[in-house]
Amino acid sequence: MNVTIEPLNNTNWLKICNLCVSDEQKSYFPVPNVYWIGISRYEEHTELFAIKSGDKYAGLTGGGLDEDGVSGYINPLMVDERFQRQGIAREAMRLIMDYLIQKYNVPCIHINHRKENHIAARLYESLGFVVYSETEKEYRRSYTTLF
Q1: Which of 22, 30, 61, 126 is buried deepest, with most CB atoms within 10 A?
Q2: Pick from 45, 95, 39, 120: which is nearest to 140 by CA?
């Protein structure tokens, strides 16, 4: 499997806008990709990347330097329903994690997910993310990059 991430730009953003999760998954991943694109430019300043599987666009991920100025964060991670259960999310996570570590030299990376999103929980746990806090609806996880 050849999974890559490429910066979101004027040639790929519209293709990413057309990707979405299944109807069932929209209960815990309700935000469409076009929203992430907008918020990344005006609020969070997230660097967004198109996820590709071979030559096909399969999802969206992003991240940046957290508000503390030290940690990294990943938000969002979305794989289109047609490309799920193929290991694409795992490889995209590794790629965005490596990017954040190399660009910002962060000691840890944070990611949040809804409590009912058990698939995300298993993926993040398998990559070494541990819960460090929670709200009524979300788990907050952290991955330590320094060993």
Answers
A1: 61
A2: 120
Tens of pLDDT, residue by residue, the chain (147 residues): 699 999 999 999 999 989 888 888 887 777 777 777 777 777 667 899 999 999 999 999 999 998 888 999 999 999 999 999 999 999 999 999 999 999 999 999 999 999 999 999 999 999 999 999 999 999 999 999 875
For the whole model, what pTM was predicted? 0.91
- 3-state SS of 19-68 is CCCCCHHHHCCCCCHHHHHHHHHHCCCCEEEEEEECCEEEEEEEEEECCC
CB burial of 99-121 (b: ≥16 within 10 Å; e: otherwise) equals bbbeebebebbbbbbeeebeebb
